Amino acid sequence: MNSKCFQIAVLSLCGVAVICAVLLGRWSDPLVDFLAPDALTVYSIDYRDAAPGDSDGGTERFHGFAILGKVEILDVERRNAILSSLRNGIHNGDGRMKKCFFPRHAIRAIQDENSVECLVCFECGQMKIWSTGPSISTLPVILEQTSSDPQKVFDETLRSAGIPIARYLAME
Questions:
Q1: Which domain of life is it from (predicted)?
Q2: Which is more confidently placed, 59 or 5?
């Protein structure tokens, strides 16, 4: 390979590396647009009852899954703590996701005119994210991974509001 071709190849690889680094940095926190949400709702989801749409014969749904209950988090510090726990779960995940996706938890956060909705399966570590935030609104849905660490915060939030939580499939 002559030196001109080698230089072009090296520069091309450097360009690809820079683009990847920028994109990875941009996507490394899918909640970046929601650091201090104006509103936050935590949902208990029944993964065993899934159907398309957001309602079905009177059953309220979250991206197709039946909602067992929901609680709006009015306390600003509590909202920030819940999102912080989820953000830490994303960053502390080991990168491996099982394939079950039996979501039992969800959140909807609103900040300014933007919203983010996360459907979470702590059993397999998968999370689906829909956002209108400026940083990630170009994709209709993002598949992310999380550790099970935030589950305790989500469960405590729902239980303290008297909301039931669906049992894991492995527990049935």
A1: Bacteria
A2: 59
Q: What is the per-residue pLDDT for 2?
A: 65
51 is written with which tokens?
A: 């159907």
Name beta bridge partners: 50: 65
DSSP 42-56: EEEEEEEEE-SSSEE
Closest to 108 in 3D by CA, of 125, 128, 135, 90: 128
Q: What tens digit of pLDDT does each residue of 36-84 get?
A: 889 999 999 999 888 776 666 678 899 999 999 999 999 999 999 999 9
With the C-alpha atoms ordered 37, 113, 106, 92, is the resulting torsion angle positive or negative? Answer: negative
CA distance 153 to 78: 10
C-alpha distances in Å from residue 45, one per residue of 37, 109, 159, 162: 22, 16, 13, 14
Helix, strand and coil content of the chain, in percent to the nearest 5, comes to 30, 30, 40
111-164 per-position pLDDT tens digit: 888 888 999 999 888 989 888 766 655 556 778 888 889 999 999 999 999 999
**79: number of Cβ within 10 Å:** 22
Task: Output the six-digit token pair for 63.
Answer: 């991206």
Q: Which two tokens stand for residue 153?
A: 């915060």
